[in-house]
Write a structure and sequence with these properties.
This protein is α+β, with helices and mostly antiparallel strands. It is built from four helices and three strands. It has a single domain, classed as Ribosomal Protein L22, Chain A (Alpha-Beta Complex), CATH 3.90.470. The protein has a three-stranded antiparallel sheet, sandwiched between helices. The mean pLDDT is 90.
């Protein structure tokens, strides 16, 4: 089983119990559009990030909000102070694509790529 470089670093920190993470896989959204929302909240405190994502009208922000809330809940279960949580890293990796065909003129067909992504949110307690 191969790991990406950032996954190895996360595994080491998780072993030391410094960070808490939450993942959502096979999210039916284009990764490029989700990354726009992810870059908006990266490095912010968890409370500020939640407030920013709640007021945003984008559906991608709603999906990212669910994962962020899950990461905060996971940290709360590990007895970490929720007020000190900071969004350390957000990874939006490309997932599989659903491939469909759209008929066009002259008997041809054009591909429609329905993209998916995997979202990983890592929160860390800053003192």
């Amino acid at each position: 089983m191969t790991f990406k470089r950032h996954e190895l670093k996360i595994a080491k920190k998780l072993a030391r119990k410094q960070i808490t993470r939450a993942t959502s896989k096979f999210v039916r959204a284009c990764p490029d559009k989700v990354r726009l929302a992810a870059n908006m909240v990266k490095g912010k405190s968890a409370e500020t990030a939640i407030a920013m994502l709640r007021i945003s009208p984008s559906q991608n922000c709603k999906r990212l909000l669910q994962v962020l809330m899950s990461a905060v809940q996971n940290a709360e279960k590990k007895n970490k102070d929720v007020d000190l949580l900071v969004v350390d890293k957000i990874f939006v990796d490309r997932g599989p694509m659903l491939k469909r065909m759209h008929p066009v003129s002259h008997g041809m067909a054009k591909p429609i790529l329905k993209r998916m992504c995997h979202i990983t949110v890592i929160v860390e307690e800053k003192l």
